[in-house]
Design brief:
23% strand; D-Maltodextrin-Binding Protein, domain 2; five-stranded mixed beta sheet; 227 residues; 36% helix; alpha/beta; 2 domains
């Protein structure tokens, strides 16, 4: 079985596969939008896990998938250079301070970038100004390649590419362990819900589709910061 999965699932995937107990599986990870393009271009794939429902649904509408379903949710958070945080700063002040650089993932190629654009839209005029200052640093066709095993927020901030990075909250527990970083939650209703979904593209993928909707898989996802 060949699986293509969103990069934000990489950390949880090993635990999921260990529970699934199927040895003959090949997995590749990347921005979900770019993975969908690879499938549309004819790359073999039995199961596709995306950080949104739009990409799986597009494959179903095109007749490339047998079924689609949501299986988890996520949220966004801010990761900030710790020494840049002032007393009284919150998520809004950090995104509107003109002295701080804002880094994001790439809209269109990576759902994280799309959810970030939703966040900016929900912020009104403040979001318009933040959008103008934000720079897509990862998750695109020509953006910076992340070293294997690294967290985007940690790597970009430590390399002085940005001061604030908007990314998935599922990474927050690991990021909070790094002394040079501060993780800041984004409250509702500003914070969009990232709905993860899959497309089952062949009979080979059906057993894993059933597993991913099982109580065992949901428990593992929750243990890794998903809801």
């Amino acid at each position: 079985m060949r699986i293509l999965a969103a990069g934000s699932l990489r950390a949880v995937w090993q635990s999921l596969m260990a529970c699934f107990q199927e040895k003959d599986v090949l997995c590749d990870f990347g921005p979900a939008g770019l993975l969908r393009e690879r499938i549309e271009a004819g790359e073999p794939c039995d199961f596709f896990a995306s950080a949104n429902m739009a990409h799986p649904q597009a494959l179903l509408d095109a007749g490339r998938a047998q079924s689609v379903a949501p299986f988890a949710t996520n949220r966004l958070c801010l990761t900030v250079r710790a020494d840049a945080v002032r007393e009284g700063d919150d998520w809004l002040s950090l995104l509107t301070r003109p002295d701080l650089r804002i880094g994001t993932s790439t809209a269109g190629c990576d759902p994280s970038g799309d959810y970030t654009q939703q966040l900016f839209s929900r912020m009104g005029d403040a979001g318009t100004r933040a959008r103008e200052r934000a720079v897509a640093l990862v998750g695109g066709r020509d953006t910076l390649p992340l070293p294997a095993g690294s967290l985007a927020a940690e790597w970009l901030i430590s390399n002085d590419d940005t001061d604030v990075f908007i990314g998935y909250a599922s990474y927050a527990p690991r990021l909070r362990l790094i002394e040079t970083l501060t993780v800041v939650e984004i409250p509702e209703p500003y914070n969009p819900v990232a709905e993860y979904g899959f497309a089952c593209l062949s009979d080979k993928g059906k057993p894993f589709a059933d597993f991913l909707l099982s109580p065992e898989a949901r428990l593992i996802l929750c243990q890794h910061g998903f809801a």
